[in-house]
Write a structure and sequence with these properties.
It is a single chain. The strands form 2 sheets. Strands 4-3-2-5-6-7 form a 6-stranded mixed beta sheet, with helices on both faces. A 3-stranded antiparallel beta sheet has the order 1-9-8, with helices on one face. Helix content is 20%, strand content 35%. The chain has a single domain, classed as 3-Layer(aba) Sandwich (Rossmann fold), CATH 3.40.50.2020. By secondary structure, it is of the alpha/beta class. It has 3 helices and 9 strands; from the N terminus they run βαβαβββαββββ. Helix 3 links the parallel strand 5 and strand 6. It binds inosinic acid and magnesium ion.
């Protein structure tokens, strides 16, 4: 298979099985914490798509979902510039909003999203990120729920991309230098 993505992976950080356990654990915590609330899960596209799809099925109470898309990343490094490419469909008043992200890195993206969504008067707002890279933080921000803390390395898979590829890998890994071109 000349097109095999798996050949580009140097090291698996979180296997498919480990990922399932992590997501199930988060789902049961959220189920418990939101049992008397009006949960609205807000997915930040595209990176959180896979996580969102698995996480929502581990949540056993009523919930609604919405999507927004923001772009701040090109290749390996953040540009620091955040742009809304697609806004939410729902107004947030009355909802207990849970922002679902793939990774909390510099924190610039989530900080921006949080400020924006808070201004829309939700009943409450919390963050659930699959991955946390605390070493690279540029703005002070903490996730209310996180799946795993990872070192400051560029990772792909389970929704996370390198130049839009590798999102469909079912596990999380690092890329071989040979797969990273011209950066
Ligand atoms: P932040 O604004 O620096 O916190 O970056 C958040 C966004 O950058 C995430 O939603 C990802 O899309 C992207 N990102 C950060 N680190 C990685 C990585 O290691 N692999 C792939 N994407 C990443
Ligand atoms: Mg991304």
């Amino acid at each position: 298979m000349s097109n095999d993505m798996n050949r580009d992976i140097e090291r698996v950080l979180i296997s498919e099985e480990q990922m399932k356990e992590i997501v199930a654990g988060l789902g049961s915590k959220i189920t418990e914490d939101y049992k008397d609330k009006q949960l609205l899960m807000v997915s930040v596209l595209k990176g959180s798509l896979v996580f969102m799809a698995d996480l929502m099925r581990e949540i056993k109470i009523h919930c609604e979902i919405d999507f927004m898309s923001i772009s701040s990343y090109k290749g390996l490094k953040t540009t620091g510039v955040v742009k809304i490419a697609k806004d939410l469909d729902l107004p947030l008043e009355g909802y207990d909003v849970l922002v679902v992200e793939d990774i909390l890195d510099s924190g610039i993206t989530l900080n921006y999203i949080l400020k924006l969504l808070r201004s829309r008067n939700p009943k409450s707002i919390k963050i659930c990120t699959l991955l946390d890279k605390p070493d690279n933080r540029e703005v002070e921000i903490k996730a209310d729920y996180f799946g795993a803390v990872i070192p400051d390395e560029f990772v792909v898979g389970y929704g996370l991309d390198y130049n839009e590829k590798y999102r469909n890998l079912p596990y999380l890994g690092t890329l071989k230098p040979s797969a990273i071109k011209g950066e």
